[in-house]
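Morning!

This is the sequence you dropped in the shared folder:
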Amino acid sequence: MSILFRDRGVGESKREMAPRLPVEDLASPFGELGCNLSDAELRETAYEIFVGANRSSGGKQLTYISLSERVIIEKAEKSLSLSPSLSGSPSLQRSLTSTAASKMKKALGLKSSSKKSPGKESSPSKSKKPATIGELMRVQMQVSEQTDSRVRRALLRIAAGQLGRTIESIVLPLELLQQFKASDFPDHEAYEAWQARNLKVLEAGLLLHSSLPVEKSNTSVQRLRQIIRGASERPIETGRNSESMQVLRTTVMSLACRQFDGFASEMCHWADGYPLNLRLYQMLLEACFDSNDETSVIEEVDEVIELIKKTWVVLGVNQMLHNLCFSWVLFNRYVATGQVEHDLLTAADTQLAEVAKDAKATKDPVYARILSSTLNSIMNWVEKRLLAYHETFHKGNMGSMENIVSLGVSAARLMVEDISYEYRRKRKEEVDVARNKIETYIRSSLRTAFAQRMEKADSTRRSARNQPNSSPRLYILANDIGELASMEKSVFSPVLKKWHPFAAGVAVATLHACYGSELKQFKASLSDLTPENVQILKAADKLEKDLVLIAVEDSVDSDDGGKAIIREMPPYEAETKVADLARSWIKTRVDTLKGWIDRNLQQEAWNPRANNENFTPSCVEVLRLIDETLNAFFQLPIPMHQALLPDLVTGLDRGLQHYIFKAKSGCGTRNTYIPTLPALTRCTTGSKFHGVFRKKEKLPNSQKRKSQVGSLNGDDSFGMPQLCVRINTLYHIRTQVDSLEKKMVNCVRDLESSHGDNIANGFGNKLELSLAACQEGIQQLCEALSYKLIFHDLSHVLWDGLYVGDVASTRIESFRQELDSNLEILFNNVTERMRTHVVKSVMKASFEGFLLVLLAGGPSRAFSCNDSQIIEDDFTMLRAVYVCGGDGLPEEIVEKAATTARNVLLLFRTDTESLIERFRRMTLEMFGSAAKSKLPLPPTPGQWSPTEPNTILRVLCYRNDEAASKFLKKTYNLPKKL
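The structure's back. Tokens below.
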């Protein structure tokens, strides 16, 4: 066996000094067998396999056999080769007197028992000491001499009947069943129990836990089950020529000798399925413990293990499974014997080092499952103690704690590093696993200990309730937690520091958080500063200083000097009741402001004649409420205005932002009013759509607008004057924000004159949400007003009238006149400082509307090259509306806004052939080689442009000539009407 064990001196066991704890019966991590096999039955079966696997042609006879029998059997024995590769291995017949001191025990850290302790000599009445390894194994496995003799005699008979067969090529329970009758047992009940055991072993190995899955269609399965059920009522006749035995043999062999991995094999698979094989193997390994001293491993363990290994070929065990099973056996024995022999725990921990090597070297999913189950069993037991180690350990048993922690960390590392795919992917450092586990134990145990101390403090307070000058509960608790932290530092942290360098820091940070939680509740209910409350706060302050000091001392060598731990310990005194009351006051004022806004804006009429400034009375009122709130705040008798001012400003900022959102809510956006573009069509040559135009004149304008333009619900609060009032209101708020901020800076400077300059310089713009909301709201309202005016209010003269039918008779004059009238209304209602901004927005919308008529006006419009001059003249008239002979917008602003339209209008004077050629070239440039065979339909652009294919295509669609119609028909097969 490969070993990487820690050496340990002989005399280090503390078994005699350790008190025996209640024995625990841990569930096997290898799972239940499901066939009611007891440990005694498993042990007897394991012993049979052990003896059979260690039969050797060169060794002495297994037991006394009469001379008459010996003559018959010797010939068969010489020809039976059960394990030729092990001829040089230890023998069952080796004398115990020649056994050397155990190297394995020394490597595992187990004490040697070769020298008996005083008073432990065997008395004459006790049974004599075994003389051979085989006899020792019989005694260790609690097998009687009669049973042993019967097993060995049966094996010799089996050898005589199956010359040349190896142990792995026979089904041992089947062969044993055929060797004995009821007369070979003390009584019939013993025989029936023996037969039932062998049948249960066959059921477990061949049906319940077969190493190769059994197909449902296999008839041998049902046959074997019937035989087992029948045997429970009447024992099987096991004679050599018995028909029932022949049926059983045929059935068993068909199941045991199935092919594995597609290859035929002489090996019989009857005991190598999981978990049966590991439960049997566990029974063999448990024989390594002294039957007279259940906490000691026998000195002959080296040779016993080597003999046990010979069963691997039958049980399907390998070195990895042996290492894992041996680790569990050592750990389980420590628990099952009352946790008195800590060397067993050390040995289990040492053996896990071998398991870790194995886990890294294999990806076998079955092994991984067994490993995970075993480690979970160990971890569950370990964590039951370590998650509340204050209840389990004390100054007198810290050695036990260190051993348990070491084992738990080893198991945790195995689980995380060698089983967890997530860990392998992230490649974490090894130390992280140990630190994280120890930190979990510390925090869990201290939280539990804190809860217990809190119950104790409650009890003390209740018992002293009627006594004068009794201490408050949190005062008592603060003193108790200080004592707990001191004990943690001196007793537990030195042990845990081996795996977590800042164990004490984590501990006090946990206690700090626990007490802080209770203190927080106390402060929440605090109404005034009574002497009792002051006493609690002083005790809390002292406790905090003690805890912080421990954390700093423990973290002095850390990379960050303990900053990480200190960050876990927010100061207790940070929040006072005064600050809480002040914050509550702030919240009440802010909530009142928001409630006032919600109530009053529901009734706001946005009346442009409400005052001379054309903004709303509610705007004046909300600003007055904010100003009054600031005045009242700075008059509060508190010493922390500067610290609490950000909370107040944030609340007021959000309240004002809420007002702004409400003011612009429901007004729509640019996209609300932009009409849906109709599908592309081609014009009918020579037609000016007079008939269509006349038909449209008969339709109400409102019906046409409804089909093309998004509209609102007709609420008067969204008319042009009302939208102007909304714009004025947001502009007024924006101008007042600066005044509010200056007032806050001055008030803080007056309160804290010594630091006033720093406060003023660092105060900054605190009403940022309101300012941003004003900017965004003004822009949105200007666009909504402009596009509503152009595409909704003036839709009947623009979208439904301009250039419909005959171009010369439907020019822009009607649209221009109504636009002038509406601009006059706008000028009368919008504040002077916002007029330029609003008019620019209207200009942009009108230019966009003009181009939409030309490029997306639907099938009621068609243009020829001759119409281009009319269109350009009309656009010049539209442009002049905004210049107004120098009384309107500056010439350069209007010219810049008109650039796009002017450039597009040049396309309307370009001949059709040139347009087609330009369109082809630009489409090829856009789509590349994909457009050579067939011109794709270019997408609608974000902005019209004479260098954009879709813009040119639209000019062609509305070009009223034969060449354009043919090109569009041939290239895109566009219809002549929708």
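Headline: The chain has 39 helices and no strands.

More detail when I'm at my desk.
O.
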